[in-house]
Amino acid sequence: MNCRSEVLEVSVEGRQVEEAMLAVLHTVLLHRSTGKFHYKKEGTYSIGTVGTQDVDCDFIDFTYVRVSSDELDRALRKDALRNSGGDGLGQMSLEFYQKKKSRWPFSDECIPWEVWTVKVHVVALATEQERQICREKVGEKLCEKVINIVEVMNRHEYLPKMPMQSEVDNVFDTGLRDVQPYLYKISFQITDALGTSVTTTMRRLIKDTLAL
Amino acid sequence: METDINSQDRKDLDKFIKFFALKFNLAIKDIPEVTHEAKKALAGQLPAIGRSMCVEISLKTSEGDSMELEIWCLEMNEKCDKEIKISYTVYNRLSLLLKSLLAITRVTPAYRLSRKQGHEYVILYRIYFGEVQLNGLGEGFQTVRVGTVGTPMGTITLSCAYRINLAFMSTRQFERTPPIMGIIIDHFVDRPYPSSSPMHPCNYRTTGEDTGVTYPSVEDSQEVCTTSFSTSPPSQCVFTVTKAHFQTPTPVVTDTLRVPMAGLAFSHQLSSSRLSYQPAALGVGSADLAYPVVFAAGLNTTHPHQLMVPGKEGGVPLAPNQPAHGAQADQERLATYTPSDGAHCAATPSSEDTETVSNSSEGRASPHDVLETIFARKVGAFVNKPINQVTLTSLDIPFAMFAPKNLELEDADPMVNPPDSPDTESPLQGSLHSDGSSGGSSGNTHDDFVMIDFKPAFSKDDILPMDLGTFYREFQNPPQLSSLSIDIGAQSMAEDLDSLPEKLAVHEKNVREFDAFVETLQ
Description:
Chain A: Belongs to the ATG101 family. The complex is a heterodimer. Chain A is α+β, with helices and mostly antiparallel strands.
């Protein structure tokens, strides 16, 4: 099974970065979260209810829907803030994975099954008028991105099977109290305009290879 | 359609589709009215092949214009997926589809409009079954396929078609342009596609938000419109007319404004800016049932009529929009006026005496055929009298074209009463005649003039002893300046001419003094 990969690109102003990224993250996680599973006897389970709420962006003319889970929101904000607001190109990856138990001494394997990559190009604007135009344009772009996300989600491609109670932690993140998203991790890659990311990637590859 | 689906799965599938149509596993707050309407529309059935469930979102302005914004369509086609598991896969996919629906609803242009709805416009919804009707979305509408879910009975598809051409809205609806003459006429627009389901407002913001205007939960959309778009304050002359009223000659008048009838009482006329004047030369006369309400008028649109003449305060007289676009019977009309040249002499009731004089002299100077016009006197409100058409040749009286030829009708007219203070008018009438005839003097004017009790705009009664209306009446017709009267002027002119040589002689005698004076100035 190959990992499904989707790439989204947005150009935003510095102060819009956090909101744009949260909008994408929340929209994806809205589709990749369920209510908490409540397992019963005889191998059956019931699914809790998930609430939703609207989030109005302050720096973008845009509103998105997120899961009504403050815990999840806090976790995502912490990740989104790691991205700097300076000029340049930033890349955020939201990876959904499954854990595969391995025998000792090997650690559990993380097998990604879906990766969302958001490339953020940060621009600096000089005048207020440009910023106002940017507000509207970025809003429209994000609307398109939401439509793209929804189209991908509804292709109904591979999704992990619903696990037994003993294996639920291999598929879902059960650490949150009110929602149960698929296991995910967020990583960032920040480069400057010159695109030195290739160098850092190569360096990392060599290091990892040597570490093994 | 033959399927291998068992009865339990079938039951589950129906349940899931019904829940999807109404409400699914997400914690979506139910709005009782919407649930009720949806259930009513479903009427115990489910979306099926050829029977799509459509939700139409439209916008309706306070002026009565409406526009479809988007149409959500839940369809089912014949493509079956027999392998799929109902209780697990279909359930999860329908749940995903509902989440996608939530996400997409915030992305369409209608969402931003719905957040700003209030006094200027409201967003309405309508649920119907059958063929989806996309014609109202304008050109170039976009379609988003939100998602599909295959089931053993068929494939469910949810799509949204939304309008992108909002140009009509941006240039007209959202600009705060006040009505030209403070006239507000509410119309109810007929839907282009008549359907059994009425429109309902979408006013369902969650608690904690400033909802602004809240609408009563009513079933009938007409009532919603009525309560949503209120008319102007009672002191203004405002009508609320439904389309039905066009068929009857008695519009609802919310003000006590009555109309003086005759043209000779021209200078008396009080009409405020709200009253509209329509010269007969414009050739009004078509039986235009789309003709909007006319103020204080015994409205009979089948006859050409002339409304009361604006008075000194009136400034620019107005006439309602001509029925060039009479097809839009439902649209609001604002009173605008484009006088034709032939009637301009009649159409300029100036508040200045000098202008009045000049106009009337113009009228007299112009060829008589210009003054020959079709004059149709308008019957005042609440008067059960037929309108008469009178043709006049030029009379040697000012404002002759407004003088009714037949005064008997006016005498019998219950609305016509002698004015309280006609004396101020006589000098005006008399002074305008070069031959000194007083053809147009008091007698006719008294008979024709109807002194009415009117309430000027924005005035408040019983607050001051001298309110705006009283002030207006008292100072409306000041006496003519003596220096402007032609007779006196003519006499003084003759005297001046006679005395001119003497004056010249005196001036010549004092030439040196004058020169010295001029030098001091330099």
